[in-house]
Amino acid sequence: MSLTLLLVDLQNDYFPGGTHELPGAPLAVERAAALLAAFRARGLPVAHVQHVARRPGATFFRPDTEGVRFHLAVAPTAGEPVFVKHFPSAFRETSLLVHLRDGATTRLVIAGMMTQMCVDSTTRAAADLGFDCTLAHDACAASALAFGGRSLAAAEVHAAFVAALDGTFARAATVAEVIATL
Fold it and tell me: Is the whole model's pTM more than 0.70, yes or no?
């Protein structure tokens, strides 16, 4: 059983100065960096996912901008694969699945942004594809949302999506809990 760390969309546009800043992003990337360091120290596989916007009028992750680049704290090193995607799921129209299957990966630890969009889509797809998933929920961040005249704070959105994933699509755990089991 091979274990791989999947880091989703930890890109500059989600951080202070970016075009789609997420509350909690600085703390989430700090925790993701600790998780990444633990995987690297143990020689465990890591895969990075990068969203590049193709949609006309996109306001973030535009090609050839500083915002589309990985946050320096979790930037890929030589030999760590990067999968470029154009949709919320990291599996849609990418070679991620082939890469994971070729590496005999059966278990994933997933962290990244946004909890309610790309992390959710990727985690659900991974579970549907048969992967045993752990969501490092404190290494993720969400944005605030509104629906039906009700506004939801980013922390509420994050909690609701983690709660929906936990138990059915993934096991939600803290970075410290994940590291302790490596």
Answer: yes
d(CA 17, CA 41): 31
Token code pair at residue 133: 């998933």
- Which of 113, 158, 107 is CA-nearest to residue 133? 107
Question: For residues 53 and 88, is the Cβ–Cβ distance under 8 A?
Answer: no
In degrees rounded to 5, what are phi and psi of residue 74? -130, 25
How sure is the predictor about 81, in pLDDT bands with cuts at 50, 70 and 90? very high
Q: CB of 142 within 8 A of CB of 132? A: no
Query: What DSSP string runs through 161-181?
Result: HHHHHBTTTBEEE-HHHHHHH
Closest CA to 119 of 165, 171, 71: 165
pLDDT in tens, 114-154: 999 999 999 999 999 999 999 999 999 999 999 999 999 99
Residue that is written with structure tokens 């704290």 in the block = 73
